[in-house]
Design brief:
331 residues; alpha/beta; Rossmann fold; 2 domains; seven-stranded mixed sheet; 10 strands; binds 1,5-di-O-phosphono-alpha-D-ribofuranose
Length: 331
């Protein structure tokens, strides 16, 4: 992958801009915030005036501080933490390649590029693995907007399958509308429904496909708020429920629900400030947890696995490396 292939949305952005854009969700989607975070490290170090006599220990300091800032932008999706870990781990395991500060910059840059490449390739592979599950002549229910899910459906469509996708609009930020538009533009039949209408229409659904923000080591899934309701509805109807998750969406640290911080976003996403009664407290969690027993399988870039196999997959890639070995806990 060349620099020109990196997503335009953040390719030329400064570190500060990337931080801001992840927070505001101008850059969103678990995979994309991981790619942008790795790129943020690159942009930070490239814009840092370092002297060769400072050595690469100084480079680490710059990187750790940038990583802390990026880590705090959105707390739930582990793709972001794992993207940072990928770069920081890569720097630490290759000290011989970094004699000068310039070497350090180059190595950070190439690791950020590597993560972007592997992340994009992983989505393509998930699409190949997942398209077989899409029922020809059937109905697929989705929620929110996941690039991995959209690409899986487009791959099935390109293979000649004819199916209907029912996209839940996904309050409060309506990312389901993005899904509906992307799919219809690809030539797929689409219906859009409000989140509360999912059960009402569910009797014709053959498959549920959702994205993933974090898969715990136990196989518990954190995805957009409303996903766990959808999983329960699927179970009631005996319909398979699959999540599409690149390997780096599995946590190196979180065993299950209790170990994941769920991002609580601004009340203004739910109700405009001028309509909010002063005595009402608004709750706006961005994600919820789906138990492994509601998940038929995880469509990864290394095949379709059972939730109980998540632990081994992340261990295969990161061994015992953890982001907490590099940067402190969220404060
Ligand atoms: P991809 C999104 O979170 C959704 O929850 C989606 O399922 C997940 O990221 C994965 O998306 P948000 O950033 O990586 O909209 O598959 O809060 O694109």
């Amino acid at each position: 992958m060349d620099v020109e292939d990196v997503e335009e949305l953040f390719r030329d952005s400064s570190f500060e801009q990337i931080v801001e854009d992840i927070k505001s969700m101008r850059i969103r989607g678990a995979g994309r915030i991981g790619r942008a975070a790795a790129w943020g490290l690159r942009q930070n170090i490239l814009s840092t005036e370092g002297h060769d006599d400072e050595g690469y220990s100084r480079g680490y300091e710059y990187n750790y501080s940038a990583a802390e800032t990026l880590y705090d932008t959105r707390p739930t999706a582990v793709s972001l933490a794992n993207a940072l870990l990928f770069v920081l781990k890569g720097l630490q395991t290759d000290p011989d390649q970094m004699v000068t500060f310039k070497d350090f910059k180059q190595r950070t840059s190439s690791l950020a590029l590597d993560f972007n490449e592997l992340s994009i390739n992983a989505v393509d592979t998930i699409a190949l693995n997942g398209k077989e599950l899409v029922p020809d002549g059937g109905v697929v229910q989705t929620i929110c907007n996941s690039t991995a899910v959209v690409q899986t459906l487009i791959a099935a469509h390109k293979e000649g399958k004819d199916f209907l996708v029912r996209a839940a609009e996904t309050r409060p930020r309506y990312q389901g509308r993005i899904t509906a538009r992307q799919l219809v533009e690809a030539g797929i039949r689409v219906e859009l429904c409000v989140d509360n209408a999912i059960r009402h229409h569910f009797s014709d659904v053959d498959l549920v496909l959702v994205g993933a923000d974090t898969v715990c080591k136990s196989g518990e899934l954190f995805n957009k708020i409303g996903t766990s309701n959808l999983a329960a509805i699927a179970k009631d109807h005996g319909v398979p429920f699959y999540t599409c998750a690149e390997w780096y969406k599995i946590s190196t640290e979180a065993e299950s629900l209790a170990d994941v911080e769920v991002e609580e976003r601004a009340s203004s996403e739910v109700i405009p400030d001028d309509e909010l009664h002063q005595d009402i407290k608004v709750r706006n969690p961005a994600f919820d947890a789906t138990k492994p027993d509601l998940i038929s399988g995880i469509i990864t870039d290394e095949g379709i696995i059972q939730p109980g196999e998540a632990r081994e997959l992340i261990k295969k890639h990161f061994g015992t490396w953890k982001i907490s070995g590099f940067i402190g806990p969220d404060d």
